[in-house]
Design brief:
single chain, alpha+beta, 4-stranded mixed β-sheet, 4-stranded antiparallel β-sheet
Length: 396
């Protein structure tokens, strides 16, 4: 069970799992737990934590074998924040007790996670956050407000950053915690979006007590821990594996082929250009996933997410134009609180409106351009007059 494990050995482990557990028996949770315990959840994770210490690139072998057998998955859209952000952060910075407690129910979907990072006055400037955590014996008492929190209405746990030292520069006085969303003092309120849904929430924290045992990383080192989360988040958003002509370009291409009466030369030129861009982005995402298979995500994920956001917005705009009057219809404005985002099971109007959020969530496109410029291209950083000032002395 080392990094030298090969495809055939992994296939043998999949066959052994299928021999012990019938994937069609209807016990989805039981199957997912058995898969985790067999090390076939994340094959690159350590033994005992859902993995086998195998190369990350071999995860596709396991997924393909199980899909061919009709095995249930863990509904990754519903638990995407846990899978894409919380899990890699816990694996890297968590204690042995934290890893054992959180990773299994996270992967099986028994416990949904959300992310308490952004605040009304600390979105793009996340390090300027005001939520405070004050030490009280073995606990921390947290007060503040978070915003744009996906899945907060359905989450059991949250990854949270809070200010623990206002007397040092803003990046150095932050600590990272795991917050129980069912604890007293946690209030979740829906935020209705342009789509009519309340997919996001604002979260108010009033005297919430978090045990020090739920701290990730050292006190005051939360910014470094959060950067690991954010790097993984951008890969999770922009680096999803899709087939050729998959993703947002798929419904537009399908409409083009099935509805020749809608075609014009100008729309044809634009569709071809966007199709090529979508393919380039898909191949770029594949390259980042290959890099990720041999290491941790870097700033390249920011470029990937930046391209993903702009491309989605332009493709969804073209789709609405192609459909003409039909594109202006909207199926349902009823305010609901969905458990996951479904771009492709909805109409063109939903895709057009929801894509507007792609350039905000997971880091605004403006901030991502700065990251690409400074950390990928090596350009000079922007002047930062607040770099060495104590957070408490910053103007507000």
């Amino acid at each position: 069970m080392t990094g030298g494990m090969g495809e055939e050995e992994l296939r043998g482990r999949v066959r052994a799992l299928l021999g012990e557990r019938d994937p069609g028996a209807g016990d989805v949770l039981g199957f997912l737990r058995a898969r985790f315990d067999a090390g076939l959840a994340w094959v690159h994770f350590p033994v005992g934590l859902g993995g086998l210490g195998a190369p990350r690139a071999l995860q596709g072998v396991v997924d393909a074998e199980l899909a061919a057998a009709g095995a249930p998955d863990n509904d990754p859209r519903r638990i995407g924040i846990g899978l894409g952000m919380a899990a890699p952060t816990i694996l890297r910075y968590g204690t042995d007790e934290q890893k054992s407690r959180f990773l299994r129910p996270l992967w099986t979907g028994e416990e949904v996670w959300c992310q308490l990072f952004s605040e009304p006055g600390a979105g793009s400037d996340l390090a300027g956050l005001r939520t405070r955590a004050v030490r009280d014996g073995d606990d921390w008492v947290v007060d503040g407000q978070k915003v744009w929190t996906s899945s907060a209405h359905n989450a059991r746990w949250a990854i949270l950053i809070a200010r623990t030292d206002p007397d040092v520069p803003k990046h150095r006085g932050i600590t990272y915690f795991v917050c129980d969303m069912t604890d007293p003092g946690v209030e979740v309120r829906p935020l209705r979006q342009i789509t009519g849904e309340a997919e996001f929430n604002e979260v108010f924290l009033t005297g919430v007590r978090i045990p020090d045992a739920h701290r990730l990383g050292e006190v005051g080192d939360g910014w470094r821990v959060a950067q690991s989360t954010l790097m993984n988040e951008r890969v999770a958003i922009g680096g999803v594996a899709v087939p050729r002509e998959g993703g947002m370009i798929a419904p537009v291409a399908r409409t083009w082929r099935e509805r020749p009466e809608l075609r014009t030369p100008e729309l044809h030129d634009r569709l071809l250009g966007l199709w090529v861009e979508a393919e380039v982005a898909r191949l770029g995402a594949e390259r980042v996933r290959q890099q990720l298979a041999v290491g941790a995500p870097g700033p390249e994920g920011s470029g990937l997410k930046l391209a993903f956001a702009g491309l989605n917005q332009r493709i969804s705009g073209l789709e609405v134009e192609l459909l003409g009057e039909e594109g202006l219809r909207y199926s349902d404005w009823t305010m609901v609180r969905p458990l996951s985002v479904d771009f492709y099971g909805r109409d063109a109007g939903y895709r057009y409106l929801r894509a507007k959020g792609n350039s905000i969530e997971g880091g605004t496109s403006e901030i991502l351009r700065n990251i690409v410029a400074e950390r990928v291209l090596g350009l000079p950083s922007e002047p930062r007059t607040d770099k060495d000032a104590a957070w408490k002395d910053l103007p507000r």
